[in-house]
């Protein structure tokens, strides 16, 4: 999630579009962010969860087909943006449940107090989310990167 926040922040600050999709187990979600046209990802998730609160894909598992479906949604959003066709997921969170084989769209409002896209942003430069979330120390402890 911290990387999605970082990408969101970079895109909003540079006025670039951003299509996000995330998955966990049998569920997925997607949203498209077009700066100055609707809410950003941080309007929905203002802060990353504390380290260890969200299980990794290795811990919780994912269904590969869900990754494929959400990747297809993301790619479709990008193509619709490039072609200027259809309705993008601006201000909408698309939620997919593979167990029910259902999609739902939830309306998301822009948070006027959002730290990045709000009326008075408080985050105006990118931060090191690996350091902020303690990811590098966790990776080193389990034998990852040095």
Summarize the structure.
The chain is α+β, with helices and mostly antiparallel strands and 146 residues long. 36% of the residues lie in helices and 18% in strands.
Oligomeric status of the shown chains? single chain
> What is the CATH C level class, in words?
Alpha Beta
Helix content: 25-40%
Q: What is the level-2 CATH architecture name?
A: 3-Layer(aba) Sandwich
Distance between the termini: 22 Å
Could you describe the 3D structure shown?
- The protein is an alpha+beta fold and 146 residues long.
- It has a single domain (2-141), classed as NAD(P)-binding Rossmann-like Domain (Rossmann fold, 3-Layer(aba) Sandwich).
- 36% of the residues lie in helices and 18% in strands.
- It has 6 helices and 4 strands.
- It has helices spanning 2-13, 41-44, 57-60, 64-83, 129-133, 135-141; strands spanning 18-24, 27-33, 92-97, 102-107.
- A hairpin with a 4-residue loop joins strand 3 and strand 4 (102-107).
- The chain is globular, with a radius of gyration of 16 Å.
């Amino acid at each position: 999630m911290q990387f999605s926040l970082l990408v969101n922040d970079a895109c909003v600050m540079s006025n670039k579009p951003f299509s996000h999709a995330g998955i966990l187990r049998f569920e997925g979600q997607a949203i498209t962010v077009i700066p100055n046209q609707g809410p950003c990802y941080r309007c929905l998730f203002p802060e990353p969860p504390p380290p260890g609160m969200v299980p990794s894909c290795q811990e919780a598992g994912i269904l590969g087909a869900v990754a494929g479906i959400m990747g297809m949604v993301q790619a479709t959003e990008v193509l619709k943006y490039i072609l200027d066709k259809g309705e993008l997921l601006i201000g909408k969170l698309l939620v997919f449940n593979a167990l029910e084989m259902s999609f739902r769209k939830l309306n998301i409002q822009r948070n006027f107090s959002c730290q990045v896209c709000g009326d008075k942003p408080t985050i105006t430069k990118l931060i090191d989310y690996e350091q902020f979330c303690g990811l590098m120390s966790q990776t080193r402890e389990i034998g990852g990167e040095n």
